[in-house]
Design brief:
With about 230 residues, the protein is mainly alpha-helical. The chain folds into two domains: about 150 residues, Four Helix Bundle (Hemerythrin (Met), subunit A), CATH 1.20.120.520; about 55 residues, no CATH class.
């Protein structure tokens, strides 16, 4: 059985799907008459939209240029989707502002409309992510070695500020399978100071079940193969 190819999209897309799902659920049950509940939900929507926009930019800066460099025009459809997503994010942010400033029945109507438009945005992004993980990955795998893809991914990681990375981890860690989670943390342990890694472990412990934490601890304690 051949070794799976590097999938740069897998982890971040799981994180964003988790973030989108949680935000849609929170907005769906928000009480328009409760200011604290409403403004908390709107803050999460804004955080989600900010994360989505940063993700679009990372792909524009690193992934699409790599695709065009070896197969010109191969990212054109995705770039069109990204332009639409940027427009949709602006519209949703404006709707958040309308909802926050409205009162009474108008607030309820704005909240209902925001929820419907957010579900459309999420649906479009789920379809787009499928395009990236199938058609775009096929291009990347055909044009680049795993070593080259790893190097591109490392450039993306290096461009992410610590605060943005911490926010991403909040949604990524619980969204990964046990094997994916262990692989990510083993890599992080190898590349960061022990006190920093202990902070990552503490965050992880707060986000996953006791059973999943036991699986992670077992993987971290297992002897690791020595690189050739």
């Amino acid at each position: 059985m051949s070794k799976p190819r590097i999938n740069m999209y897998a982890g971040i897309h799981k994180a964003l799907r988790n973030f989108m799902s949680d935000t849609e659920g929170r907005l769906s049950r928000t009480d328009a008459a409760d200011d604290e509940d409403l403004h908390g939900a709107l803050a999460q929507v804004r955080d989600l939209l900010g994360a989505m926009r940063k993700h679009l930019q990372h792909e524009r800066d690193f992934v699409h240029p790599a695709m065009h460099a070896r197969r010109p025009g191969s990212a054109q459809v995705a770039e069109g989707d990204h332009d639409h997503h940027d427009w949709a994010i602006d519209k949703l942010l404006a709707q958040c502002a309308h909802c926050a400033s409205a009162a009474g029945g108008a607030r309820i109507r704005h909240l209902e409309y925001l929820h419907l438009q957010l579900t459309v945005f999420i649906g479009e992004n789920l379809v787009h992510m499928n395009l990236e993980e199938t058609e775009q990955n096929a291009v990347l795998w055909a044009c680049y070695s795993d070593e080259e893809l790893h190097a591109i991914h490392e450039l993306i990681i290096a461009a992410i500020p610590p605060q943005e990375m911490q926010s991403t981890m909040r949604w990524m860690i619980p969204a990964l399978s046990p094997a994916e989670r262990a692989g990510m943390l083993l890599g992080m342990r190898a590349g960061m100071p022990a006190p920093v890694f202990e902070g990552v472990l503490a965050l992880t412990r707060s986000l996953i079940s006791a059973r999943d934490m036991q699986k992670l601890e077992a993987a971290l304690e297992a002897p690791q193969p020595i690189a050739a």
